[in-house]
Write a structure and sequence with these properties.
The chain has 24 helices and eleven strands. The protein is of the alpha+beta class. The chain folds into two domains: 234 residues, Cytochrome Bc1 Complex, Chain A, domain 1, CATH 3.30.830.10; 247 residues, Metalloenzyme, LuxS/M16 peptidase-like (Cytochrome Bc1 Complex, Chain A, domain 1). The strands form two sheets. Strands 1-2-6-3-5-4 form a six-stranded mixed beta sheet, sandwiched between helices. Strands 7-11-8-10-9 form a five-stranded mixed beta sheet, with helices on both faces.
């Protein structure tokens, strides 16, 4: 699918008996059909003079609002020495900022706690007063009742607050101060390094982590850090607050950010608040001009890898380099439609693998990215059927572009179901906010604005072009995850894994 690859991972998790955490999931895919009602997402947007994109999706049905800051950052910007630090920055975003520090200093002075005032270097903090303005709003923040969180992906970092709509202005102000005036307190920073290291340890306790990580490292062999949002223990442990400020100076500029507000709001009020609060945020250099993205070199040949972990089933993932936004947009739509066709229970792929009993599950996903999105086929099977199941997957791949592999009805149904999926996601607007942010970051908001129309325009020829360009007969990486005993029983070889 596109954004998050989550559905198949949940299936694998259930079959595996393990918890699996992966990237987010969202709307996507194209297809040709008779003229019909359009389901374009009814958001409005405006770009401020400093380059900040403000996106508003109003829905007055429930008096709730979500305010999100999205930044084009993540592992795709990270060389090895900075790997995982976009995620660490995400953790620091919700820690002390200049406004909070000044609020504490003012309180210390009022109650005569000059020991705190001097120890917290409040004389320096007070110099921010002219920039911050009145910080009395912080008296109300603890009484607002809000949810806050953030995520870090390959090409997107977001931070958000959800609250009742009456507190829109307060939380937008809080977002402004957290964005523009981070403190990077050394003590808090050390604590968050330990928190992030703990997250990495928990990830490494999940068997599926080793499958996913090995596949990505092999697919993107020259620049593996660019596809690893969590980073490594070594890179995170070596982080410094100077590195946080480096990330801030490069990527936390308004012309590399979006403010997304959804829920019970009026767009003109949001635009006015955004201008008042964020209009003074100084525009920076385009980070992707000054620090261009790497070009992931294509695979020269196919490779099979076996990873041993203590699991019951055999999990096989086959990966290819897929299309990139900005280079082959048409194939990104085709990828979504085709993936949805073969994901349906009555598809030829599902009948050949699942209905036949060769596999417990099989899924096909394309992850939309600007910097080379991976295509993955994931197969869950048993040791005694693994060899036959893998052989059948490759047999099916060879038939993907056959005129009879899917019907016109399946093609049109996939487009309709993809639209319905997006409509259902809109019912939980707080989460759909992140969908808007993801698309803005990785594709640009105009791509998403025309997404459904472009899905509807996808033809069989478009799908065949996508399949023949990126999958059929192309170099790929195949990784099998299984236990030592299952490896012996399955008798899978590297040649089996690459379809020879």
């Amino acid at each position: 699918m596109k954004k998050f690859f989550l559905g198949s991972l949940l299936t694998i998790s259930a079959l595996f008996g393990t918890a699996v955490i992966d990237r987010p999931a969202s709307a996507q895919r194209p297809a040709a059909a008779p003229a019909k009602q359009t389901y374009a997402v009814p958001f409005v947007n405006k770009k401020l003079a400093n380059g900040l994109e403000v996106i508003v999706l109003p829905d007055p049905s429930v008096p709730l609002v979500t305010i999100e800051l999205g930044v084009r950052n993540g592992s795709f910007t990270e060389p090895p020495e900075l790997n995982g630090l976009s995620h660490l920055y995400e953790h620091m975003f919700f820690k002390t900022n200049g406004a909070v520090a000044l609020f504490r200093c003012d309180m210390a002075k009022r109650i005569g706690r000059m020991d705190y005032f001097n120890g917290a270097n409040c004389s320096t903090t007070e110099k921010l007063r002219s920039q911050l303005g009145d910080i009395a709003y912080l008296n109300d923040v603890d009484n607002v009742g809000y949810v806050r969180n953030g995520t870090t992906q390959e090409e997107y970092v977001n931070y958000y607050f959800s609250t009742t709509s009456e507190h829109l202005a307060t939380m937008m102000r809080y977002m402004r101060d957290a964005t523009l005036y981070p403190s990077f307190d050394e003590q808090e920073f050390k604590q968050e390094i330990e928190v992030v290291l703990g997250e990495l340890d928990r990830q490494e306790g999940e068997p599926f982590y080793y499958l996913d990580r090995r596949l990505m490292d092999e697919l993107f062999y020259k620049y593996p850090s660019r596809k690893a949002p969590g980073g490594t223990r070594e890179s995170v442990a070596a982080a410094t607050t100077d590195k946080m400020r480096l990330i801030q100076s490069r990527y936390y500029v308004p012309n590399n950010a979006a403010l997304i507000v959804t829920g019970d709001v009026q767009p003109e009020r949001v635009f006015k608040l955004a201008e008042d609060l964020f209009g003074g945020w100084q525009k920076g250099e385009d980070p992707f001009v000054k620090y261009p993205l790497v070009e992931h070199p294509p695979l020269e040949k196919s490779k099979g890898v076996i990873v041993e972990q203590d699991v019951e089933n055999v999990i096989v993932q086959i990966g290819w380099h897929g299309p990139s936004i900005g280079k082959d947009d048409a194939s990104t739509y085709a990828a979504d439609v085709f993936s949805y066709i073969v994901e349906q229970p009555n598809s030829r792929l599902q009948r050949a693998l699942v209905d036949s009993g060769l596999a417990a599950a099989v899924s096909v996903h394309y992850y939309t990215q600007r910097n080379t999105g991976p295509i993955r086929i994931t197969l869950v099977t048993s040791p005694d059927r693994a060899k036959a199941a893998v052989a059948e997957v490759y047999k099916q791949i060879g038939q993907f572009a056959s005129p009879s592999y899917f019907t016109n009805e399946e093609l049109n149904n996939a487009k309709t179901l993809l639209e319905a999926e997006d409509l259902l996601r809109r019912e939980k607007l707080s989460e759909y906010t992140h969908t808007l942010g993801f698309w803005w970051s990785s594709t640009g908001i105009d791509y998403f604005r025309g997404y459904h129309a472009n899905l509807r325009a996808v033809t069989r020829a478009d799908i065949n072009k996508y399949l023949n360009t990126y999958i059929i007969g192309k170099p790929h990486v195949s990784v099998a995850l299984l236990s030592a005993s299952a490896r012996e029983a399955a008798n899978l070889t590297e040649a089996d894994l690459i379809g020879r």
